[in-house]
């Protein structure tokens, strides 16, 4: 379809449209630009994701141009980040209308997401560091745009402290790595010969720095504070944060995957991420604020992504990161709908005959085993198969078995099958697009079995606890989870008094 | 629980036994807050409903002192109204004269007037602020005289006082703790792991949990472990421990309730819902004050707050330099009496009084404008439509006014205004639902239940279809709540969500409309009947349906209230109203306020059906209301977001009624378009083109990113009770509630009394809620929509956590962060009736009289000769 010459056109075109987007966002900052210009701006920023998508589909292998490298992974990530940016900015047109910092939101959103996407194109590690640092800075600035509001300022402070730590550690790790290997280009650093120069303690040290640097933006325990306190940010900013920023850890680990081969730090990552999965899920279960439930869920999902990385399943981690981003940004954007009073809440529960449980279990087993057999050699496949089987069972019971009458069951069955087909299709698609770009690292099945064991054990304990709500153990765990999910006391203001000040300042 | 607590109390130093109920004190204290129901049935409440015994200014002073909340518009708001000419100078001067006349100050009237006027208009007479040394010498001189400036003393919570003294955070910590415990206890969103022991009540559950709470430090936890079993005893013990004098207990409780009025209000609301939780507010205060006591113990006793008034004195002196054209050294040459007079004037004429005068002048200016608009019709058009083709009854809602105007312009139509629940005290239950909604103003209790029903077969199919849709949500929840599947959930649903997100972002209108349509087509709601005939039920439940007498009673009452008792058109349309918006937790705030925050379509349908019953018509005929056979009642719903009229119930029509219906069908699109055009320009919008406005209005209702789907009742300012001829063809700018009333048909004043008791209270509450949300957006409003989070399935908080917010969001009263949309004016009730009628009303209805006297509402009347009389004091 495309020959090589066409291929090298994509990067050029892409950077041109990125530059136009950035320029457009700066033009909008000028108070003389009419507000209605924002529609034109949305038109401009729609171009980069389209170019990225075309480049992704044309699949031209890896190109290296100057400090940049272009491959299907970086195109996918650019497409993803810039699409989120486009959707969120489109949303902000109406949503933030009348906000004092209206123009600044668009400029910052555009620039932050642009540098974020360029970070994943960087082959030169110095450029990567710069872009990633700029992304974190942009995010902090976005949170602090409501600077009249004390709690927003406090949240921004918390973020900037943790982000600085994270970025500093990453810089340290990369400088160390460059010192030892004598290269600044990612492709040169990760060659077998370069990596061979690393002493074992050096590898441990560098990977340890990497791991701590990436678990901070992924809001993993014990660094979850910034994500919990930044619920103060306007909804669309939270959407960008939860979709495009928190998953950077998974991307960075994927980019540096060869470095981690045989590093004992993987075990550490595995342990901390597992704890985060449990805490995050727990927060989601005990919290009653909708946005805070979403935060809990993000912590757990990012923990899972990092577990996938620890198990060497980088491809699965990237797919998870991308789909989770789309999922979570939608949930944030429609956070106002949780109380839809027009929707009926009627739900007839009926006793479930054994035959439905039986068919569900058989189906779940078949799907699980079938999925596992597609590539049994990969250790991680076992985890996927297990979770898939589990979900099939629950979905079967909920959608089909609980359906009322023929109509209900047929409808449920259609959704069940349709959902399954789409799931497999999308996975196939992403798998196909990325499989050559992401290093395959064989991991022992022991990790996979361990994680299945943890999931099962946690589920069993969870069920026991729910049935023994009055036990002391429940009380203790419940209160700890509440505590983990609550904001810091500096992040709470009983009444948003800054609004009163706004009226006093304005009053035109 | 309800035991009398006898405790030794420290009564102003004397040890004495006082015998009292703590519950009574809690009850009395609860007047400072109002019950707050769940946001899904957002009903407007006047936040000061329990304080109307005091004057507006007294309440304002108290709230400012105790909570720093100002309920007069701020200087800047008033200044901008002044600049825009909405406050006329003549009224400012008039109000100022009135105020000065009430003061007994030994100062020439002119001098006092000039000082006050300069202060009001912020016209500085001197720009040289006095030098520090001059000021000090004058201060020294004056301080010798030991003037006693009377200062009110308001009780504050200890934690608040401590915070003010040395910036201690106990107050913040106690608030944070309370927010946490309240939301966990009140949760209705069914968190999978709910708070243990909730069933035993708030205090009991909290007491059981708090000794294990890792967010509280160990010593305090230990302290809390030792609390009494019963809430009232714990509350008493804590008050005793804090050494609150008996005489101040009520005020102390009030101060605590006002710290988080939203959560306290929700507790109060819940306590009114069932006997099981009737002491919930006492429990709330027990938890709060016990916690305060435990946290504050190390700092006790608090030093008394000392204020020698020096600062105040200084500001008074400076104000004379600024506004009184009085150089600083003049003070030294004044006599003691002259000094005292000047200081007293400056003290009394403080910011609160200045703002009050400006607000009253603003209100007076509006009244004058309204008088002009209505008065211009002195030769009232009495070309009463001899034979209207159709008659429409609309809700009093301000959004009906422009629509009615456009409708009347479009054809031989007559319109009426009446409260949107149409006088029906009903609880409604839609087909296939378990939940029923009290569809009447929140100040009344439902007496009859009306169900929507269908044949068994139809119902079954409908339920199957409903269940299938609901199962999608439940499956999502089930997968989410189970750990292994929750981790896979984003991958399963991510693609679907992305599709939806992209569609909603780039095709908001069509996506919204298509999904609504798909849902409707899939559900296939069958045609339904209403249970209007009484069905035998057991005594404890509400009776279902109306008895025969009730059918006649409510039909007659509704027709009487709207003044439609003769000259019936072939088609009478009863119009309810509802709003469409997407992704909006405040959706129900845009629905009918007289129906408890829901669409009034159901009530419209009930009334129309009642009026078509042959038995009812026969009985009405005997009572002098004869409805011709060819007249048919139908019901419709006015969709306020798009200004469309949707038919809800059209029975078999007579020939003439059919003609009317057809004609309405052809004129409605034009009416909608014109009504939308009038409204649309007021909404802040990027697209300034006026093409295809209907589509743009639909977009407002369907767009998930829209924070202002419509303006709702913003800018409401007046409630006009009178014949439509009074206001017909008058452009009232969507600011007026309109109730039809003909005093000639109401010789004994009972209809007017009903209008004042029901609809006027509803409109006053709506008005004051908008007022409060505008003047104190952080305290009485709901804050910024963009930073809200829904909590516990019952309401919203700001940011990370806050009070449960009660009023309207920022975006519903503000055009932008800097520009007001709603004008904070207290409701002006205008009654078209002879003076005796109004006087009789005030004599009979003490509570209305009190509202008027204390400045919670304003009143004017227009007598049959067209004279305008202002009753506002």
From TrEMBL, chain A:
Key words, A-Z: Cell membrane, Membrane, Oxidoreductase, Transmembrane, Transmembrane helix, Transport
Name of the encoding gene: dabB
Source species, domain of life: Bacteria
Name of the protein in its database record: Probable inorganic carbon transporter subunit DabB
Any one Gene Ontology molecular-function term assigned to this protein's record: oxidoreductase activity
One Pfam family recorded for the sequence: Proton_antipo_M
Subunit structure: Forms a complex with DabA.
Role summary: Part of an energy-coupled inorganic carbon pump.
Keyword Cell membrane in annotation: yes
Entry's family note: Belongs to the CPA3 antiporters (TC 2.A.63) subunit A family. Belongs to the inorganic carbon transporter (TC 9.A.2) DabB family.
Membrane-topology annotation of the record: Multi-pass membrane protein
Subcellular locations according to the entry: Cell membrane; Membrane
Domain NADH:quinone oxidoreductase/Mrp antiporter transmembrane span(s) in chain numbering: 122-404
Residue stretches spanning the membrane: 12-30, 42-61, 73-93, 105-121, 127-145, 165-184, 235-261, 267-290, 302-323, 354-373, 380-401, 407-426, 446-466
Coiled coil: none
Domain NADH-Ubiquinone oxidoreductase (complex I) chain 5 N-terminal, first and last residues per copy: 68-106
């Amino acid at each position: 379809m495309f020959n090589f010459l066409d291929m090298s056109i994509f990067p050029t075109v892409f950077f041109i449209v990125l530059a136009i987007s950035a320029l457009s966002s700066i033009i909008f900052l000028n108070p003389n630009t009419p507000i209605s210009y924002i529609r034109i701006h949305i038109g401009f920023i729609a171009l980069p994701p389209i170019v990225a998508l075309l480049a992704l589909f044309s699949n031209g292998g890896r190109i290296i141009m100057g400090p940049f490298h272009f491959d299907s992974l970086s195109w996918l990530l650019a497409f993803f980040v810039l699409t989120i940016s486009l959707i969120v900015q489109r949303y902000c047109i109406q949503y933030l209308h009348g906000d004092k910092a209206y123009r600044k939101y668009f400029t910052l959103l555009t620039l932050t997401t642009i540098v974020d996407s360029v970070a994943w194109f960087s082959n030169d590690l110095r450029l990567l560091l710069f872009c990633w640092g700029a992304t974190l800075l942009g995010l902090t600035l976005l949170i602090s745009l409501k600077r009249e509001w004390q709690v927003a300022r406090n949240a921004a402070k918390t973020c900037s402290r943790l982000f600085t730590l994270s970025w500093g550690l990453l810089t340290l790790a990369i400088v160390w790595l460059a010192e030892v290997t004598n290269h600044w280009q990612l492709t040169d650093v990760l060659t077998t010969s370069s990596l061979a120069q690393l002493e074992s303690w050096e590898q441990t040290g560098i990977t340890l720095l990497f791991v701590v640097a990436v678990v901070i933006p992924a809001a993993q325990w014990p660094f979850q504070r910034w994500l919990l306190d930044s619920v103060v940010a306007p909804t669309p900013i939270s959407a960008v944060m939860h979709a495009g920023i928190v998953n950077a850890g998974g991307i960075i680990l994927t980019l540096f995957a060869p470095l981690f081969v045989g590093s004992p730090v993987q075990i550490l990552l595995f342990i901390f991420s597992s704890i985060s999965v449990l805490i995050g899920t727990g927060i989601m279960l005990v919290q009653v604020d909708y946005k805070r439930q979403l935060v809990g869920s993000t912590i757990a999902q990012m923990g899972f992504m990092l577990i996938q990385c620890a198990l060497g399943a980088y491809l699965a981690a990237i797919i998870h990161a991308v789909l989770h981003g789309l999922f979570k940004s939608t949930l944030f954007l429609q956070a106002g709908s949780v109380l839809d009073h027009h929707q009926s809440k009627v739900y007839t529960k009926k006793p479930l005959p054994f035959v439905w449980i039986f068919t569900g279990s058989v189906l779940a087993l078949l799907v699980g085993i079938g999925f596992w057999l597609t590539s049994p050699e990969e250790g991680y496949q076992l985890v996927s198969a297990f979770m898939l089987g589990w979900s099939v069972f629950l979905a079967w019971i909920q959608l089909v078995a609980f359906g009322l009458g023929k109509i209900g069951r047929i409808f449920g069955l259609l959704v069940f099958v349709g959902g399954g087909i789409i799931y497999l299709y999308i996975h196939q698609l992403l798998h196909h697009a990325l499989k050559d770009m992401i290093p395959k690292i064989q991991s022992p099945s022991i990790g996979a079995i361990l994680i299945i064991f943890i999931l099962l054990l946690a589920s069993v304990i969870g069920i026991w606890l729910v049935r023994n709500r009055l036990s002391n153990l429940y009380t203790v765990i419940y209160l700890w989870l509440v505590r983990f999910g609550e904001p810091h006391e500096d992040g709470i203001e009983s009444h948003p008094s800054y609004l009163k000040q706004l009226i006093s300042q304005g009053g035109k | 629980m309800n035991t009398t607590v006898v405790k030794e109390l420290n009564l102003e130093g004397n040890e004495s036994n006082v015998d009292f109920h703590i519950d009574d004190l809690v009850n009395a204290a609860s007047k400072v807050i109002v019950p707050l129901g769940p946001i899904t049935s957002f009903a407007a409440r006047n936040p000061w409903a329990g304080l109307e015994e005091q004057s507006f200014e007294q309440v304002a002073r108290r709230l400012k002192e105790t909570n720093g909340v100002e309920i007069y518009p701020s200087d800047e708001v008033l200044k901008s109204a002044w600049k825009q000419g909405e406050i006329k100078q003549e009224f400012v001067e008039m109000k100022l004269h009135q105020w000065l006349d009430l003061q007994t100050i030994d100062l020439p009237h002119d001098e006092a007037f000039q000082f006050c006027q300069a202060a009001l208009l912020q016209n500085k007479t001197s720009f040289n602020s006095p030098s520090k040394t001059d000021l000090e010498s004058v201060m020294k001189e004056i301080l010798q005289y030991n003037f006693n400036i009377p200062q009110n003393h308001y009780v504050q919570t200890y934690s608040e006082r401590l915070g003010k003294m040395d910036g201690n955070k106990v107050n913040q910590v106690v608030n944070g703790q309370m927010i946490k415990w309240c939301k966990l206890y009140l949760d209705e969103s069914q968190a999978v792991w709910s708070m243990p022991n909730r069933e035993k009540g708030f205090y009991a559950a909290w007491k059981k949990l708090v000794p294990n709470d890792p967010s509280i430090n160990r010593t305090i936890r230990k302290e809390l472990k030792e609390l009494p079993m019963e809430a009232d005893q714990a509350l008493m013990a804590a008050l005793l421990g804090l050494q609150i004098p008996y005489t101040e207990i009520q005020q102390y409780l009030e101060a605590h309730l006002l710290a988080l009025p939203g959560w306290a209000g929700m507790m109060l609301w819940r306590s009114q819902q069932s006997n099981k939780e009737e002491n919930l507010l006492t429990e709330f205060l027990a938890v709060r004050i016990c916690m305060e006591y435990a946290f504050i113990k190390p700092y006790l006793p608090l030093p008394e707050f000392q204020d020698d008034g020096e600062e105040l004195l200084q500001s008074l002196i400076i104000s004379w330099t600024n506004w009184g054209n009085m150089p600083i050294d003049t003070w030294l040459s004044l006599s003691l009496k002259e000094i005292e007079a000047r200081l007293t004037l400056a003290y009394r004429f403080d910011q609160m009084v200045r703002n009050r005068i400006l607000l009253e002048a603003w209100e007076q200016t509006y009244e004058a404008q309204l008088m002009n608009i209505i008065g211009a019709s002195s030769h009232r058009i009495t070309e009463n439509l001899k034979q209207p083709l159709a008659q429409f009854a609309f809700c009093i809602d301000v959004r009906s006014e422009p629509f009615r105007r456009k409708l009347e312009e479009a054809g031989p139509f007559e319109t009426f205004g009446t409260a949107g629940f149409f006088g029906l005290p009903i609880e409604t239950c839609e087909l296939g639902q378990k939940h029923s909604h009290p569809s009447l103003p929140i100040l009344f209790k439902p007496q009859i239940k009306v169900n929507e029903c269908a044949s068994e077969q139809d119902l079954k199919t409908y339920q199957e279809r409903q269940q299938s849709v609901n199962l999608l949500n439940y499956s999502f929840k089930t997968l989410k709540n189970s750990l292994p599947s929750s981790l896979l959930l984003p991958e399963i649903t991510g693609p679907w969500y992305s599709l939806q997100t992209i569609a909603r972002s780039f095709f908001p209108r069509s996506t919204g409309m298509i999904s609504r349509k798909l849902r409707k087509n899939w559900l296939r709601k069958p045609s339904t009947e209403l249970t209007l005939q009484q069905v035998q039920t057991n005594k404890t439940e509400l009776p279902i349906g109306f008895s025969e007498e009730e059918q006649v009673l409510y039909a007659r009452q509704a027709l009487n209230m709207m003044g439609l008792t003769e000259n019936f058109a072939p088609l009478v349309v009863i119009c309810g109203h509802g709003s469409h918006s997407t992704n909006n937790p405040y959706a129900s705030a845009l629905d009918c306020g007289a129906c408890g925050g829901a669409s009034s379509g159901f009530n419209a349908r009930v009334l129309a059906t009642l009026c078509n019953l042959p038995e009812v018509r026969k009985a009405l005929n005997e009572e002098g209301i004869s409805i011709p056979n060819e007249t048919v009642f139908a019901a419709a719903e006015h969709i306020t977001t798009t200004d469309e009229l949707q038919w809800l119930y059209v029975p078999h029509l007579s020939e003439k009624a059919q003609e009317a219906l057809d004609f309405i069908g052809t004129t409605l699109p034009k009416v909608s378009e014109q009504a939308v055009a009038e409204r649309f320009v007021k909404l802040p919008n990027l697209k300034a083109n006026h093409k295809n406005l209907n589509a743009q209005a639909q977009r407002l209702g369907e767009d998930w990113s829209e924070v202002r789907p419509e303006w709702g009742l913003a800018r409401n300012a007046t409630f006009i009770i009178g014949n439509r001829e009074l206001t017909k063809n008058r452009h009232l700018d969507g600011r007026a509630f309109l109730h039809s009333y003909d005093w000639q048909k109401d010789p004994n004043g009972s209809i007017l009394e009903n209008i004042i008791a029901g609809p006027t209270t509803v409109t006053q509450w709506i008005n004051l809620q908008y007022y409060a949300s505008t003047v104190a957006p952080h305290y009485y409003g709901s804050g910024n929509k963009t930073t809200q989070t829904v909590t516990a399935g019952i309401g919203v908080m700001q940011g990370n956590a806050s009070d449960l917010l009660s009023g309207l969001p920022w975006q519903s009263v503000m055009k932008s962060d800097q520009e007001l949309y709603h004008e904070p004016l207290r409701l002006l009730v205008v009654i078209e009736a002879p003076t005796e009628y109004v006087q009789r009303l005030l004599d009979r209805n003490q509570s209305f009289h009190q509202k008027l006297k204390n400045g919670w509402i304003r009143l004017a009347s227009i007598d049959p000769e067209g004279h305008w009389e202002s009753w506002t004091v």
